[in-house]
Structures are given as C-alpha cells and as structure tokens.
Amino acid sequence: MPTIGVKRDLLFEALGKTYTDDEFQTLCFAFGLELDEVTTEKQMLTREQGDDAAGAADASEEIIYRIDIPANRYDLLCMEGLVTGLLVFQGKIKPPQFKMVEPADGKRQVMKILPETAQIRPFAVAAVLRNITLNQAAYDSFIDLQDKLHQNICRKRTLVAIGTHDLDTIQGPFTYEARAPTDINFVPLNQTKSMNGNELMEFYSTHAQLKQYLPIIRDSPVYPVIYDSNGVVLSLPPIINGDHSKISLKTKNVFIECTATDLTKAKVVLDTIVCMFSSHCGDKFSVEPCDVLQPDGTTVTYPELEVREETISAKKANEAIGISESPNKIADMLTRMYLEAECQDDGDQIKVKIPPTRHDVIHACDIYEDVAIAFGYNNIKKSLPSFMHIAKQYPLNKLTEQLREQVAQAGFTEALTFTLCSRDDIARKLNKSIDNMPAVHIANPKTLEFQVVRTTLLPGLLKTLVANRKMPLPLKLFEISDVVVPDDDTEVGARNERRLCAVNCNKTAGFEVVHGLLDRVMQLLEVSWKSSSSKNGGYYLQAAEDPSYFPGRCAHIMLNNVAIGKIGVLHPTVLQAFELTTPCSVVEFNIEPFV
Description:
Blueprint: E1 3-7, H1 8-15, H2 21-30, E2 34-40, H3 41-49, H4 51-56, E3 63-68, H5 79-89, E4 99-100, E5 109-113, E6 123-129, H6 136-151, E7 160-166, E8 174-179, E9 185-186, E10 195-196, H7 197-203, E11 223-227, E12 233-236, E13 240-241, E14 254-260, H8 263-277, E15 286-293, E16 299-302, E17 308-313, H9 314-321, H10 327-336, E18 341-343, E19 349-354, H11 364-375, H12 395-409, E20 413-414, E21 420-421, H13 423-426, E22 452-453, H14 458-467, E23 475-486, E24 494-505, H15 511-524, E25 539-543, E26 549-559, E27 562-570, H16 572-577, E28 584-590
Parallel strand pairs: 4-15, 5-8, 5-15, 20-23
Antiparallel strand pairs: 1-3, 2-3, 6-14, 6-15, 7-14, 8-11, 9-10, 11-12, 12-13, 15-16, 17-19, 18-19, 21-22, 23-24, 24-28, 25-26, 26-27, 27-28
Helix pairs in contact: 9-11, 10-11
C-alpha cells in the first residue's frame, strides 16, 4: 500500500478547514484511507540517517501527514487528487468534468512511433497541459506523483516510463525512435556534459536512484529515445529526461509523454497525470490532445479521458453489503465517492458514470465497495448468515495434527524448519547431483541459504541436530510439513506433498527406533503389515539403494505396492557434510495416501 506525505498546513488550506489530528484521522477513515503518521521532514531524516544528516540537510519542521492510500487508487497519490476526493466526499464540490480542448491554432502536437521501437518499448502516448501555473508545492507534487506512479502501476518503470517537458523549449512534431547507444547523444537532466548511451549507463551505474532502472534496457542493442523536429533529445526512457526540456516554476505549457511495454497501463498513467494537474491550468480541468502516429500508419488520439457508464441494481448492492438503503440514497453515496450516479425510471436500477480518474472500477463489485465505504463500515450492523453451514477441518491438516501428537508421545521432539534451503542441502550434501534433482528453483535468490524449495524434510532436521549437538544423546527429532515437487500435470508445474520425517541420532544408528516409529504410525492409521502370504493390501519394506544412505541399509516403504517413502541409516559422508559425528537413522514418507 503506497504512502504519500502531504504538508498539513497546505492540505488544510486546500480543504478550506483546519482539523485536529483526530478529526482528520476520522475523516480519512470514513473515506477509506488511513492516517499512518504525523511527523516532520526533520524527524523522518533523523530516523533514516541520524541527527547529523538531518541537521546538515537543514530539514524543515513543518508538520507532514503520511497517509496510506489503497494501491488501486492512483488518483489519490498526490495532494491535488486527495483534496478533490475529500471535498467531493464531503459534498462541498461536485466531481470535476474533464474536457479536451483543441489548440488555439488548430494544430495538435504529433508524435510518430517508428517501427524499430518494437524491439524494446513499442508503445507511446502523449498529451499537453496549457497555461499551467506551478508554485513550489505544486511542482513538488507533480514530481512526486510521477515517482509514486513509477513505483506503483509502472512497476519501477518496467511497464511505463513518464516524461514531462517544457513545451516552449522544444518543437513538434516528435519522433519516438530506437537507436544504437553510440548514436544517441544528449545532456541528461541536471548535467552539463553531453553523453552517448554507453557513457550514460556508466555514469549512472552508481546513482542512488537511477541505477535500479539501467538493467531494463542496458543489454538491448537499441535504446528508446524521443526527439523533437530539431533533433533535440527529450528523453531516454525509462532512464532519464534531457536537460534541455526540463520543467521549472516558470513553465507554462507541459508536454507529457509515456512510453510503455503495456499500452493499457500507459493510458491509465496519462489519464491520471493530466486529470490531477489540469486543475492548475488557466482553463481548469482542460487537456489538449495529441495525435500519435503508429508504425502501421494509423493515428490514435490521446489522452482518451473516457467516461464509462455502468448500471447497477440497488437491491444487489444492498444484499452484497448487508444494508437496506433506497436507490436515491445509494446514488447520493456513490456521487460522494467521485462516481456520479442517478436513479433510473424503474426505481431499482442506478446509472453510474465512471470518470477517467477511477480506473480502479472494473466491476459492479467495485461500485458496491464504494457504497459500503460511503455508508461507513462501522455502521453496517452485524448479523448471522441467512444459511447454515457446518465447518470442518481440512482432512489433511486434521491427520497432520493427530500424527504430531502421537509421534511426540512416542518420544520424538518436533522441529519446524524453513521451506527454502540451499542447492547443496538437497543435492551435494546428500551425495546427489543438483542437475538430476527435480526441484523448484528460486529465480533471484537473495541469499545462498534460500535457493530452492525443499524436496525433502531431511536437511532441515539435520541442521537442527547440528545446532543442538551439545545436548545429551539420544536426539530424536521429527517434522510433518510440506515439500514441493515438480509436477507437469498441475497448472503451476509443481505441487505440495505432506510428509513425515523422523531422525534418531545416537551412539549407534538405532535403525530399530525409526522402524518402531513407522510401525506405530501404521498401527494408528490401521494399516497392517503385509506378509508374504497376505493377499490384502498393507505396507512392507523393499530393499533399495540411495547414495544418501549406507549401502545395504536403505529400503522403500511400500503401501499397496507403491513406494511412499524411505527408511534407513544415513551414509557417513552425509553426516560429515552436515558436520555430524554420530550415526543417524531416518524415516521419511508421504502421509497423503492415508487421508
């Protein structure tokens, strides 16, 4: 959930009223938000970097409200959107009507996308904000909104990258191209030296904020770049804008471009930015459209600023929430939530207008949620369900709990180990090759200890033995947990398997101890031993060879002629790999067939 920081005094000035901290917290809660913290810039710097850093930065002590915003409410990620939303919620203003206004000379700005961009970032959208007036607070909010969107819906610029430019310093039409790094030369934002693509990558490789975005395009043979008609570089998305077209407090006309790998996300981002900051335009809530010429020759106009209409049933809304409000009352509540609504002639149907700021509304349930927020969750009366349903424990979990109790009563101590482990734990240390192990690997492990999902419970128990080797012998441990094994028949290519694993560590291997535990568990499960003369199903041991176990001291546990696990004495090299010096016997088997 993203958190925004707004200056309290500026917020209250925009709201036209001063609140106490408790009053504002109540207002936020009623609107579906949460006032997370009341702090200052100095306090935040002190907490993050210490007193010296806060003093050196000459941090302000102006009160800042840090507010938690729902991740899908992109329109509330800046003070402009937050203020508008709260004022509409309080009924002080009506939801703004956003409009497209053609340029005075009738000539729209044009951006042409060249076919080469398909190799790297194939989509681009654009818009213009005219006669905009930015003070320092609005400028900071403008930059902060872009950063919040980059971190949220843009997925750290991998899906969408935003560029904002002073239109008076550049000349359209614009071209969106993909060129070799050595063919791109420009002065990056807030720099004085011109660099090509390779030099720029090297220069920003140590930059605190920008270095995380370099891998997005670094290994590509071409980099995306936007030029104006005079060959001036506007930006090198998704890394940085050019210094030539940077915006300032004096900027009057802003050209906004978004390049993307996801066109839908790009439209949402563009709509959000222009709707939020069109409030600073001379003609409030007006946006100038731009034509984007596609590689196939077609022209598409952005932003779309689409106002959708949905029809919901007041009866269904009441039933979903658990209230009984009239259609007119529900329509009023929706209007307070920035969704203009009016009742239809039949009395039950409500027509809802969804503005371009509310891209989070994609289903009738989203509209019902806004009704519930406006009504107040605390005002919904608690009631028993209108139907009876008797719950029961999941059978596999019930069996697990029963076995845990019985194995503990048999003298074993339960352990709970990590589901993730290293490749060595399930392969080399068990005398096996990782190349032949059917394991689920972590794509980008943060530590060597968590590289794969365990395929056996044994390594975790052996590590627990090592951590407790100073304890008196015998050490008898067990665990009943899931392992993950690849399975091509499942949707995700892997499945969980519930297993029981027990280890006996003593001066002698004590194979009879784990064999006795196996017999006890089977007795509890009412599974009989299958003798050579028995024709009925049961369990038995079948000699097996496994490099993890001592030769001639390993067997498959067979149930109805199917192997469900192994029992045996661990190989000395396995004990040595786990830094154990005393013999160990092990039993491990799948308990799911018994459910």
